[in-house]
Amino acid sequence: MTDPTPAADMTYARYLDLDRLLAAQNPISDEHDEMLFVIIHQTKELWLKQILHEVALAQSLVRAGDLVPAYKSLARVSRIQAVMTQSWDILATMTPADYLRFRGVLGSSSGFQSDQFRRLETMLGLKDAKFLSFQLDRPEAHAALSEALAAPSLYDDALAQLAAAGIAVPAEALNRDVSQPYEPSEGVEAAWLEVYRDTERWWPFYQLAEKLVDLDDALLTWRHKHVVTVERIIGRRRGTGGTDGVAYLSSTLDRRCFPELWSLRTRL
Ligand code: HEM
User: Fold this and answer.
1) Which residues bind substrate (predicted)?
2) Which of 12, 96, 179, 242 has the lowest tally of Cβ within 10 angstroms?
3) Measured from the CB, is residue 110 less than 6 Å from ligand 1?
């Protein structure tokens, strides 16, 4: 454990590395609202950093079969997601006219290229190697995303725990190539149905499943608010990252990290 005795010259600013942190907001234009645009994106990257830290802990606990301690990290992630969703309302105070005054300086940069956002999606189970191509100029980000793509997702680990507890999980799901996108199956849905049909017996899994649904739900709520805010600010224009904008973002609302936890609700 690290020595908790503080350095004699420790100050608030040194502890938080404030001089470097506050030197990192560098709008390119002279437009007033560009500062907000930079800070909203930077705070989102900071929150993503904390979320990744929590998901990594939760995943190692689930993998070790310690389901109950994992709930704490997962609950914290949901609360952070709620704050991220709320922050769209701050950004929406920027009108289309305000944004168009500096949009040109963004070039082809876009949140689409956020390696931390892709790492989060990947760790939760949405695997897509095409996003590696946006990190070719950033070796550490590239390596971290590659590592997440090659590793089991949180969902893969949850399914392995279901099997270890004696619930029938199809071998194809347990032995799948974890670097590939997850394919939902009726067999996995049946495994979760067993949990939801006898919640008293399977309480720790039932709790885990609902915590996972909290995360998926909050991610969808964030995505939805992004689409609405984007339409409010740029209408149906194309995105700076090259997609067709709102139409592309709307299509991401179909993504589910834990698909059988949604589909089982129809069958209960
Ligand atoms: C004026 C404000 C914004 C506009 C007009 C906008 C627009 C877009 C568009 C059109 C895309 C699709 C990719 C592209 O063609 O560029 C996108 C993707 C994305 N944006 Fe934004 N965005 C805005 C603000 C933000 C903010 C504040 C965040 C984070 C806090 C963010 C995070 C993302 C992420 C993570 C993606 C990838 C989504 C996915 O592929 O699932 N965006 N944005």
Assistant:
1) 37-41, 99, 103, 240
2) 12
3) yes
